[in-house]
Each structure stands twice: as C-alpha cells, then as structure tokens.
Amino acid sequence: MNRKELDPGKSPGAAFGQRLRTLRDERGWTQDELGEQMGYSGTHISAVETGRRPPTPRFSRSADKALGTGDRLERQERAVRHTALLEGFPDFVAQEVRATEIRLFELGIVPGLLQTPEYAAAITTGAVRRGAITEHQATERLSTLADRQASLERTPAPMLYAVLDESCIRRTVGGPQVMAAQLDRLAAFAELPSTVLQVASYDLGERRAFDLPVTLLTLPDRSHVAYAESALQGRLERDTRFVQPMLTAYHQLQAEALSQAASVAMIEQLRKGTP
Q: Which domain does 39 fall in, by range?
C-alpha cells in the first residue's frame, strides 16, 4: 500500500495530520476504523492526515475522544485555525494545482496569482499593521502565494481567465512605484498564450454578474468546482447545482466586460498617469 510521506514542518495543518496518523498507527487502526469510531469516513480521515482538508473543532474533539488523548488534538487544531490561511483554502489550493482552466473575478485588489511580490508584500504588511495577522502569518501567506504562482508554470500550463473589476487597477497599493510595476505585470500577463485578461468597467453597473470575488476551476476530468471567501472562511463548492449557474454567470460577465485589447489599453493609460 502506498502511503503519502508527510512533512509536519510544512504547516500547522500538516503537523496535525502527522500527529493524527501517528496516534492511529500506534493503535493499529486503519483510517476506516478510526473514522467509524469518530463518525467520519475513512476518506475524510485520509484528507485530514495528508493536509488536503483542515481539521475542524468538532473533528478534533471526536478524534481526542476516540483516541483517548484528552484535549491534545483539540488544542493543536486551534493552532491550525490561527494560521493566516482561511478554513477551506488549503482544500481549494489542492484543487487549483490540478486545474486545467482557472477563472477569476476579483474586486478591489489584483488577484493573488497575478500579484507582483512587492504588491503582495504591501497587502500583507497592511494586514499586519491592522492587527489582522501576525508577522509569522504574513510570511506563511506570502510563501503560499509564491507556491501557487509557481504552480502555474507546469506543463501543460492551465488556461487562466481573469476578469478584474475596475477598482482593482485604480486602487493604489504600496505606493506609485509598486502600483506601476503591478500594472506592467498585468499588461505582460495579457500577452501570454494561455491567459485572457479583461476589466469589468465601472459603467457595467448592475450588469456585473458578481458582487463578491469568485474562482472557478475546471479539473482534468472536466468537472467544475467553485471557491469563494467571506471575511472568516473560504468554501469550496463541488455540487453542480450551485457551480453551473456560477459558470454561466461568469460567461455572461466575460461578454459584458471590456475586451482584452480595451482592457490593456485602460491599464496602459493608468500606467502613464492618464485618467
């Protein structure tokens, strides 16, 4: 049987998974046997052990009860929750690196996959100054983003569609020099053979299909998943009853947004300081 090697130093979630596997192995239980004790499937146990799914408070309490470990796992789960990554985000990233097509819509800031290092650092520095995250969490967030960006260089490269609300390119982040370099990055991104960049201009008004950021992934088997975030958590949606209408809305948004040529022209005007 093939067992995935775990790296507990990779993240708090990976450390939790390693601890769970070690405790399970010490008792000689399979994932299905532990799952039966906890009220979860063996597949769920596997996903937590390998870091593909973060533990929840309920999961960690059930594990402590089944394994007789007091509140050790519950306390460790709190450390996982207190990282800079939202609940649900690691599960999304695991699918993003497999996707053959990625569709993004963003408001207010440039999407992470398209950010320069300086722009991304300015965003996280702002979060640290507000007390929203710690310096350690900022470093974790930037490291995760760098890994996600690097994954786009795989062969074959995923097709990446990005629709940016006009606010993304007009809101200055990190000062004029950082913003100028970010606009240059967007213009260069639009030149790539596996990308499409569009701006949803302000005058789109009520015809804009989304009021919140959204990411849609097409997986190798041509199935689709959707990811969206609130201030407190992220959610990966696999149910086609919910994903298909979002995919339709995205196509409608692309039809209403500026063409790539017009979008790049707007970006270049801003880069030159022309309103």
A: 12-81
Residue 253: CATH number of its domain: 3.30.870
Do the beta carbons of residue 118 and residue 174 sit within 8 Å? yes
CB atoms within 10 A of CB 202: 11
Beta-bridge partners for 106: 164
CATH of residue 37's domain is 1.10.260.40
- The reply to whether 210 falls in a domain is yes
Q: pLDDT in tens for each of the 275 residues of the chain?
A: 557 777 776 667 788 899 999 999 999 999 999 999 999 999 999 989 987 787 888 899 999 999 999 988 988 887 666 555 555 677 788 889 899 999 999 999 999 999 999 999 999 999 889 887 778 778 878 888 998 899 899 999 999 999 999 999 999 999 999 999 999 999 999 999 999 999 999 999 999 999 889 999 999 999 999 998 765 567 788 899 999 999 999 999 999 999 999 999 999 999 988 55
Q: Tell me the CA distances in angstroms from 244 to 88, 154, 195, 237, 256, one per residue in order.
A: 20, 27, 22, 11, 19
Quick check: is 4 in a domain?
Answer: no
- Could you tell me if 172 and 257 lie in one domain? yes
